Amino acid sequence: MMRYHPAVAQGVGLGIREGRFILLATLLASGVAFLMGTAVVVALPSIQSYFESGVAGIQWVISSQLLTLTAFLLVGGAIGDRYGRKRSLVVGILAFAGGSALSALAPTISLLIAFQAVQGVGAALMIPQSLAIINASFLEEKRGQVIGLWASLSGGIAALGPWIGGWLTDTWGWRAVFILPVPILLAAALVTIRHVPETRRFSNYALDWRGTILVLLGLLSLSYGLVMGPERQWTDPSIIAALLAAAAFLAAYAAVERREPNPLVPGEVVRNTLVVSANVVTLLVYLVLNGVIVYLTLNLQQLQNLTASRAGLALLPPVIIITIFAGPAGALADRIGPRIQMIWGPGMVGLGAILLAFTPSQAIYARDVLPGLLALGVGMALTIAPLTKSALAVREELSGAASGLNNAISRLAALLAVAILGAVLVTSFGAYLESNLTESSLSLEQQELLLARSDRLADMEVPEDFDDAARAIASSAIDGAFVGAFRNAMILSGVLALLSALVSFIYIKPSKGGGANETCTHCHPVPSMRIPANHEDGK
User: Fold this and answer.
1) pTM of the model
2) Where exactly are the structural domains of the chain?
3) Contact 180, 39 (CB under 8 A)
4) HEC-encoded secondary structure of 276-324
5) Burial of 448 (C-beta count, 10 Å sphere; 0-12/13-18/19+)
6) 474 burial level (CB within 10 Å; 0-12, 13-18, 19+)
7) DSSP state of 419
8) In sequence order, what are the beta bridge partners of 200?
């Protein structure tokens, strides 16, 4: 049984005051995820240089937040369903703000990683509530429009992220980036407290903490194995043990959930063909998106030698495209159904990644980088609204669990992007660098000095005692190794995006006459089928 504020009992539109405040609150809260996602990525090279860290260090800065966020997202949605979505949203907002403020003060990279994990817990409460509140509040026939508008406005906030993050990094240092979201989140908390009605699902069932802890341990072990594998070698006993532990924990999670009376993901959700296939597409396409953004940022700053602010500006085109076209694409999906856009959108994302794979060491932005980013932006603009709407095609009372699942999948995609594509990048870089150095005229001692620093990728410094000729040879070998490694990571990204288009082609069935009400005609049948449509685009 659900309790609704009278103003939203039958759903609202954007034409009334309550609807506009609900959209504003969720926009401010979830918009921070967009903002921080892009701003922090631009600051990563500066964080690496400040702490003199290897690539694994900055991978953990991203992964720590994604680990806790991914693991707790599912239970975060259930907490909102049980204890109140408004209350949970406010708690999540304050926790996120606190984690971000502490990150700004971190004296070591280890503490920065820990504080980012705290921020992830806050986000795990904040994000699903934003989505579930939108889903529970707006009229069904208006949700596609609201999703598109929400994504467009959120994209506008995100569009500021790369440039502001770069500008703050260049002007005041990377710490300023973590201060950035605090006032925005305080405003979001105020609007939520004053204007968002409380909704909840009455029940006394116990939350599935066993499943949550098993997921956390499984993803932590998997991340450790993938992130540390290139540095410690894949045959190292600790890496093998971590990967085996990940398989064991995740298998245990699957076994526990089959017997759990109130699992993190209700069986009705995972038996829904549309929901499952949409989440598979979410995993693949967001893995590609996050991988491209993170590692293209390293390319732009470490190889192309752009400042943080210039790199931020270089990343703006796809965000601007999403801002402009996500709304119309959502309205189009309401009319024609999700299938066509969920095939062509990921296909364009794959094309963008493959174009970026051929970025040379001395790139001309308009020729070598911009076309790939434009294709990436167009593809995501086409995909965002129909993808998330399909992933949340469940009964309204399950919208919190479904939104938690979809957001957990998208965050898992980001986590895997950092780990898997990072492993490809680091492993390939080391192999290419060794090959380049072996064929060079550098002495064996000079080669060993460079190979010992290969975990820093193109940020590695050539030793000061190298003469000019040796320095030129070393720099050329480093640049060539990064170009080859980056190409491998981007080609893999392109293949994964094309695979997601194939999944859509096979499993997302044509709508009978189009429109939102036809979206789920092929799903596992459930009583009183409704088509909730939410979106969290900082995935």
Assistant:
1) 0.81
2) 8-208+262-437+477-518, 209-261
3) yes
4) HHHHHHHHHHHHHHHHHHHHHHHHHHHHCCCCHHHHHHHCHHHHHHHHH
5) exposed
6) buried
7) I
8) 3
CATH level 3 topology of 8-208+262-437+477-518: Growth Hormone; Chain: A; (1.20.1250)
Q: Which range among 353-367, 387-401, 434-448 shows the weakest confidence by mean pLDDT? A: 387-401
For residue 3, the surrounding DSSP H or E stretch is strand 2-3
Fill in the DSSP letter of residue 146. Answer: H
Residues 441-479 have pLDDT tens digits of 888 988 888 888 887 888 888 888 888 899 999 999 999
DSSP H helices in 106-142: 109-137
Bridge partners (DSSP) of residue 138 are 12
- DSSP helix/strand/coil, 12: strand
Tokens of 462: 């050539």
How many other CB atoms sit within 10 Å of the CB of residue 261?
Answer: 7
Give the CA radius of gyration of the chain: 23
d(CA 151, CA 154): 5
**In terms of Cα–Cα distance, which of 383, 390, 333 is closest to 534?**
390
Q: What are 360-365's contacts with CB under 8 Å, separation 24+?
A: 360/483, 361/303, 361/479, 361/480, 361/482, 361/483, 362/304, 363/304, 365/314
> Collapsing DSSP states into helix, strand and coil, what is residue 374?
helix
| DSSP label of 206 | P
**3-state DSSP of 53-104:** CCHHHHHHHHHHHHHHHHHHHHHHHHHHHHHCHHHHHHHHHHHHHHHHHHHH
What the block records as the tokens of 107 is 């004296």
Q: State the DSSP H helix or E strand holding residue 200, giving kind and residue range, or none if neither.
A: strand 200-201
DSSP three-state, residue 201:
strand
Q: In whole angstroms, what is the distance from residue 312 CA to residue 366 CA?
A: 15
Q: Are 401 and 269 in contact (CB under 8 A)?
A: yes
Confidence band for 103, pLDDT divided at 50, 70 and 90: very high
Question: N- to C-terminal Cα distance for the chain?
Answer: 30
H/E segment holding residue 167? helix 143-172
Phi, psi angle pair for 519, to nearest 5° = -60, -35
